[in-house]
Fold Kynureninase.
Amino acid sequence: MESTREWAEKQDSEDPLSSFRAEFDLPPGVIQLNGNSLGPLHGGVPEALDRVVRREWGEHLIRGWSEDGWWDAPVRVGDRIGRLIGAGPGQTVVGESTSVQLFNALTAAARLRPERTVLVSDAANFPTDRYLAASVARTLGLRLVETTVDGLPGVLARHRGEVGPVLCGAVDFRTGELWDLVRTTAEVRAAGGIAVWDLSHAAGAVPVEVDAAGVDLAVGCGYKYLSGGPGAPAFLYAAARHHDRLDLPLTGWHGHVRPFDMADEFVPAPGIDRARTGTPHILSLLALEAALVPLERAGVAAVREKSLRLGDLLVRLLADRLPAPARPEVVTPAAHHRRGSHLALRCPEASSVSAALMERGIVTDARPPDLLRLCLNGLYVSYTDVFDAVTALGDVRKEMSG
Ligand SMILES: *Cc1c(COP(=O)(O)O)cnc(C)c1O
């Protein structure tokens, strides 16, 4: 690995994924390193939306529900996302926000273990996950115990026989640290708990095999690595073995066994259909469906492999091209099996640095207290992008210290 722009250009010319970048409608000169927050617009999405709006909605009106497949969209798109996370068909549904799906999943997880009194929540998780874990615990009268994923075995041992739902993030949204989902799921289940994973920073980014790992329930965002657009609906996965007993708190009519009977009482549909709520956000849902196409074509494994190479290049360039005082510390673990798809750099005034990079067309973000996040999505980030971003980072740091 060399530290020259020519070397980076050569990698791009040999990269089997290089043609995908041009399919995304990025403005010229913009380098999108923030797909862990909002994935970019793929050219297939406006086309799909135009068809949905003008032809399906505009011309077909209510017939869209049957003729255009709107009714089946939550489970159809769910199955497509399922394939990206190692879920067999009929276990994933799409709709609502991640926050709402978290409430739904966590409450249902607790109801699968009615005799258990403790709800465990990942202390490093995204705020909404922690807030909702606290709220579900309060609503159901459970004791909330927060711990890091590292500390989980200790918590399970201390609360032997008491732990019901355990909510963890597969990738730390701040540091980019990737947790061992297989091992942690096995630990939770061995303790009699229900493993609920937030895959927001994992789905479409790192290979995940929820079925093989024995995950109980999972949720994740549609607008990060799945690039479904702002406010894209989230997904909920529930392992088939739980479906019959899955008692979800959001009992909307679309989850009813016979929705058009308009019955007095809620009777859940069999299978994952019971996790549907009300009328889905069809426009957002079908935008998300179109956005999955490039990722499906490329394959998560290929995207992941390139993302790791981009990450290795970033670390290498920081070491070679930024003199010590300007060089930020890489907080994300170096080992590939411990690293998600963004790298977090510790750098004072991270939000000012991110703003200065934005002025140069390089989209990153900052998270308190001092982390700059650079998302290296192999689907549309090139080796030259990484080279140019490091050059710009060096310039920004020099200006800010000068
Ligand atoms: C991005 C993210 C969310 C966001 O939830 P919304 O309801 O979509 O705002 C939740 N959890 C995690 C772990 C995330 O990374």
